[in-house]
Structure formats: C-alpha cells, structure tokens
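Can't paste images in this forum, so I'm doing it all in text. The chain is below; anyone willing to post the predicted structure tokens underneath?
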Amino acid sequence: MAVELPFARWIEDNQDALIQRLREAVEIPSVSGDASYRPHVHRMGQWLNDELVKLGAEIRSIPMGPQELEGQTLDLPPVLIGSLGKDPKKRTILLYGHYDVQPALLSDGWKHEPFKLTHDKDTDRLYGRGSSDDKGPILGWLNVIQAHKETGTDLPVNLKFCFEGMEESGSEGLEELVIKEAKGEFADVDAVCISDNYWLGTSSPCLTYGLRGLSYFSCSISGPGADLHSGVFGAVVHEPMTDLFALFSKLVTPQGEILIPGINEKVAPLTAEERKLYEVIDITLADLESAIGGKVIISDDKAEALMARMRYPSLSIHGIEGAFSTPGAKTVIPASVKGKFSIRLVPDLEPEEVGKLVEKYLKDEFAKLNSKNTLKVEMLHGGKPWVTSIEHWNFKAATAATEKVWGKTPDFTREGGSIPITLTFAEALNKNVMLLPMGRGDDGAHSQGFRASAGSLITNEKLDKDNFIKGSVTLGLYLHEVPAAAAAAEAQ
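Text version of the structure:
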C-alpha cells in the first residue's frame, strides 16, 4: 500500500485498537427484525452516536416513532444525522450506513459465537455478525475521522452522516426523513458515498454504479370450499395447484427468458462501450460457479453471465403457500394456493408499469385455461432501479484512491439486488451517488451456517483484516481525492 499520508500511517500503526472498536460494535446484537433484540438496536445507536460525538461530529438522534412487531408496540431505532465540518470552500460528502444486523445464533451452524468478533489468525479474518454488513464499513469512517484528528490533519471535505438502524427490516420512515432533510441537513451535499455492498469476487475492488429494482407478486388461485381427497375428486374439479403450475410455466423459460410481453422491450439498449465494462471485470466463470456451488450458469460467456446478473431483468419463482410440503405422501387437493415470484427491474422498467403488464398477462393466460377457479394477482411491493454515470468526479476520486491503495483499477459493477435508499438519495438530493464497498464477495453477509454444499463452503459472516485496514485507508484517500477530481470536472 503506497499511501504515505499521515492519516494512512496512523491507521496502519493502530490496527489493534481499531479492531477492538469493531469488536465492541459486533458484540452489541442489534438485530432489527426481532422484537426481543430491539433494546440492543437502540443501544447500538447510542454507542455509535457517542463515538461520533467523541470524534467531534455534531449529531442529531432522530426518533422514528412506534412500530407494531410480533404483537408489541416498539420504538423504531433512531436515525443518526449530522455533520463534521462546515467550510463553504470545501465539497460536502454524505455518508450512509446502517448499524442493525441480520439474526444469528450459534445453533444455526456458526463456527464462532456470532456476536463475538473472532480473529482467525491463520486466515487473518474477522468473524462476527455485522463485521462486513455494515458495522465494519461504518467503523471504517470512524477510523478515517480519528486518524485525521490524531495526526492533526485537516479533513479535505465536509462530512454529513446518515446512519440508520432498520436497513435489514425495511428502513421504515427513512425515505420520508431523507426527502425532508434534502432541504435541511442535506441541502449542501455535493455527492453521496454508500459502503453497504461488496466486491464482486475476492481479488479485485470495485465501484458500483447501478442497482436493479424489484417488483414482487402474489398469484392466488382458489376454487373448492375446502381441501379435497384426490381419490374422490381428482379429475372432477378444477384444481388450483394445476392452474397455478400452468400459469407459472408461462412466466419464464429454463434459460431465464421472461415471457411476459412488454418487459424485455422496455429495457434500455446495450451499447458496445457499455458491454466492454463487463468484459474487463476481473472475474471468471469459474469464480461465479464457485460462489454458486455448482456448474449451472446458463451462459458460457462471462460478459453475458454478468449482464444477466446486473444489467438485464430476471424473473424468479420463490414459493407456494397452501401446498403440501412436509415429508411423506399426502393425497390432498389444496382448496387454494398462492404462488410468489418477483421480477428484478432495470432501466427503463418502472414497477407500476410492470405490475400492469404482469396482471394483464396472467389474467389473459388464465382465461385460456377455461378454469372455473378464481384468480387474484397482487404486486406486494416494488422498487425502482438505479444507475448513474461513472464519469462523475465522485467516481473519479474513488477510482484514484482505489488504484493507489490496492494497486489496480477497480471493476465497475452494477448490483443484482436492491438498496432502495440509494435511489431516494439520488432523487431527493439530485446528486451523484456511489457505492464504495469495503468487503469481499465471499464475506457471507447474510449467511447462517458453516457447511459444505455441492462442494462449496458457505462461511459465517467475516471481514478480512486486510479489507478493514486497507479499506479504511481507501475511504480516507477517496476524501482526499475529491477536491482535485471535482476541480478537474469544473475545468472541463
């Protein structure tokens, strides 16, 4: 790592203390989706608030109101917003992260206690729930701020903060708060940096400039007044399960082609220049197969496989409610069944329009079955896709920082999943948003167990020590690259 700035050397020299702070954070089991853990989420929010204040930040802890969860009325965790530095001559960067985590129990199959940071000295990995998603990256920013303070180095930008405690459970109320603060706390923001994703693989850093959106559907078919015996009523009645299978066979092919008219036609066309971004990404089909745990990738072309993951829409069937699913043999005809599927959206697909296309198509196909059963189609929720320009100075600054710390140009990627608040920041603030990940593609952010599956090892959540330390330096150096990158953009 050829970064000789004082803040970078301080981070290198104080690794043990920085890992100890991460240990403190991981040991707070801030699981947002479980009512019994809610006090710990509030405790984590207070811990983070106190750490930021100690480092000189001005922080407001915003109460988010009550929530009904598991039959209880609970207070939502606060959103921490605030600032560090108010120099009108400097650019202002908004940092987003979340301090809540996914559930984890040792009995789930964890090799280590999930809420105790374990430093595996053989692999130099830091195991623990939240180590990579998203406490490690948040503490990376704390590392940067403390390093500047301890070395007497002036921060080259003003910082704004937005740290929430409900990302893993729907970010309740956050969108409304961001929209409100777009004219308040965030009014002077010049760009946004989010560290809540991962490298595509394990060897090359990346910057992310796009996310797919989501439309999630429920398809219910009902007929008989109660479950029936197949020996008595088989071939006598229209069976809801048979109708559902017939409909779902018309949604997508085994090769992943979406069959709903109007979906593929709306996708923004691919340019030769854009295709090159996927061709040069430092990953192989073998890497993807290793992550999958099997040689089941549809395309043998790396770029096509990556575009299927990031750039094109996909339709996945998730499950069926009301169907017999326990071990054994049961000859029941379900009276009603509900199938669930989703479509990952890309530009220029909008959730509302996709919802109308899906509903019309399923109703038209259902009519062709001549069934006397009843069909109901619902879009349960939707989120828009997001994509931005990698030519913006925000990306130029992060690219320069990545090259200096890691010795290679980052891959430019689009995520297959969704982070809805990204689009909210982009639209409410009308500023460039960039995802600058700290962790690697094998961090197992939402993993539950430690088991072998199809020859692939599924690990507990971890963060490589190298990624925590060099990743912190990358975040700091990005801030130092912002003034020059922004000035160069203005001069063009």
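The chain is about 35% helix and 25% strand. The first strand starts at residue 58 and ends at 62.
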